């Protein structure tokens, strides 16, 4: 294996969702490791996989919606795990849930979620994940059939199983997230979660009591109709991955399907909405 890498430092504005899209696109063309920071992300590709024009294939860099600047340099192989370990501190939600890596000490809260994210989204650090955990904390999930759409690391499905949900489906469009969710499901000894790689096309003839979807505004606007069709009467739909100003457009879409806004949580302008099916 080549031990020379090309390191790219990307400065991304606004940081989300562009950084998430950028990471997904870079992952598709052979970038191997990603270390997020407050300005964007540092990404690495093996020199043998690299070409001078490689970034021409990256759609998000050419998008008018975001500003993405970068510089690049050649580096020796790095210990990627050590890199993200430095950047991943354990977190706690409402003094009840701890989200940590295997090498962190267990703070012995009521729920202990162990996640090794590698490059999947979902360490609990992002506002949207944090708020979804808060919504789930308040729900009675005992024996509820749950779908975690856009599962990332699998964190929300794992937490739902810890709260008694079963059976659960966790779906992500990204192969890396699919693989990583399988690993994290096993790491947390969850036995009721089926993980799938794909999108809402997998939801034909499926029914759930609770659907969790922390994705982004545009995907949600496309797929809310499918989720609503899969929701049992009196079911709950949790949506996140968008900003406070997106609420009217999301609400206009959801309201068409017999769902009523119950509560919403806001953190740093990100929101997570809870809908009840009538
Ligand atoms: C914001 S992350 C959420 C991860 C995790 N559920 C959490 O709350 O931390 C969104 C995830 O949705 C996935 N995704 C994007 N588009 C999707 C689609 N159309 N269907 C399913 N998953 C999708 C991405 O790969 C990403 O892992």
Automatic annotation (TrEMBL):
Sorted UniProt keywords: Cytoplasm, Methyltransferase, Ribonucleoprotein, Ribosomal protein, S-adenosyl-L-methionine, Transferase
Pfam families for this protein: PrmA (PF06325)
A biological process term (GO) from this entry: methylation
InterPro entries: Ribosomal_L11_MeTrfase_PrmA (IPR050078), Ribosomal_PrmA_MeTrfase (IPR004498), SAM-dependent_MTases_sf (IPR029063)
Residues annotated for S-adenosyl-L-methionine binding in this entry: 129, 150, 172, 214
Subcellular localization, as worded in the UniProt entry: Cytoplasm
EC top class named in words: transferase
Major location (coarse): cytoplasm
Catalytic activity of the protein: L-lysyl-[protein] + 3 S-adenosyl-L-methionine = N(6),N(6),N(6)-trimethyl-L-lysyl-[protein] + 3 S-adenosyl-L-homocysteine + 3 H(+)
One GO cellular component term noted in the UniProt record for this chain: cytoplasm
Enzyme Commission code(s) on record: 2.1.1.-
Cross-referenced Gene3D superfamilies: Vaccinia Virus protein VP39
GO MF entries: protein-lysine N-methyltransferase activity
Protein's job: Methylates ribosomal protein L11.
NCBIfam families, sorted: PRK00517.2-2 (NF001785)
Membership in a protein family: Belongs to the methyltransferase superfamily. PrmA family.
Protein name: Ribosomal protein L11 methyltransferase
Gene (name only): prmA
